[in-house]
Amino acid sequence: VTLAALRQGVDLADPQALAGLARQAQIRFEAVEKGIKTILDGRDVSDAIRTAEVTDHIKPIASNPGVREALVAQQRRMGASGGVVMDGRDITTVVFPDAELKIFMEASAGERARRRVAEMQRSGLEADYPEILAAIERRDHDDTHREFGPLRRAEDALSIDTTGLSIEEQVEMIYRKAREILGLKD
Question: What is the pTM for the complete model shown?
Fold first, then answer.
C-alpha cells in the first residue's frame, strides 16, 4: 500500500485516501522457485517494496486504522480455506488469532539488517547497513507502540529466535516444532 501511495502520489497525511487505496489494491502472492513474488495490481513489486523509499514511508500507512482494516480483510480472505502460511507483525494476534499453529520468529535488529542488505544486494539494489539498521529499529519501535495491530507475541505462539541461523536451519527448526505441536508422526 505504501508503494501504491507513493507511485500514485496519494497524500500520506490523508488517512481516508490511504484507506481507500488499501481497499482498492489487489494484492496477491505467487510461489516461484526462489521464494514468493508479491503482486500489486497485476505487477511484480517484490523488489520495489523493499527499497528505502518505501520502508521510510511505512509508518503513516501501518498506523492507519482504515488501511489496517482493509489489509486484515484481504489477509483473512486469502487464508479462509486454511492450509496457508502467512507472516506479518500481527498475523497471530489480529488476523488469525485462532490459527492452529502460531510461530513468533524474532532475530536481533542487526541480524535482520544484515539479511535485508544481502537480500537487496542479490536483487541488484544498493544497500547501506547503518541506514537499514536504523530503519529497522525505528520500525520496531513504531510497530510495538502503534495503537492498531501492534507487534506483540501471541501468548500461545511458539517463539523462535533465528539470530545466527541459516534459512535451512530455520526451516528445519520450524518443521520439527510444527510436527511436534500438531502431533504429526515422522
Answer: 0.76
Q: What domains, with CATH codes, occur in the chain?
A: 1-78 (3.40.50.300), 82-186 (3.40.50.300)
- DSSP output for 29-68: EEEETTEEEEEETTEE-TTGGGSHHHHTT-HHHHT-HHHH
Give phi and psi for 117, each to the nearest 5.
-60, -50
- Measure the CA–CA gap between 166 and 7, rounded to whole angstroms: 35
Residue entry with cell 537487496: 120
CB 47 within 8 A of CB 53: no
CA–CA dist 83, 100 (Å, integer): 10
Task: Give the whole-angstrom CA distance, residue 64 versus residue 62.
Answer: 6
Strand-strand pairing, 35-40 and 43-44: antiparallel
pLDDT per position as a tens digit, 90-145: 899 999 999 989 999 999 999 999 999 998 898 888 899 999 999 999 989 988 88
**Cα–Cα distance measured from residue 62 to residue 1, given in angstroms and rounded to the nearest whole number:** 9
**Amino acid, single-letter form, for residue 184:** L
Please name the residue that has the C-alpha cell 509508518.
59
- Tens of pLDDT, residue by residue over 16-66, are 999 999 999 999 999 898 788 999 999 999 989 988 899 889 888 988 999
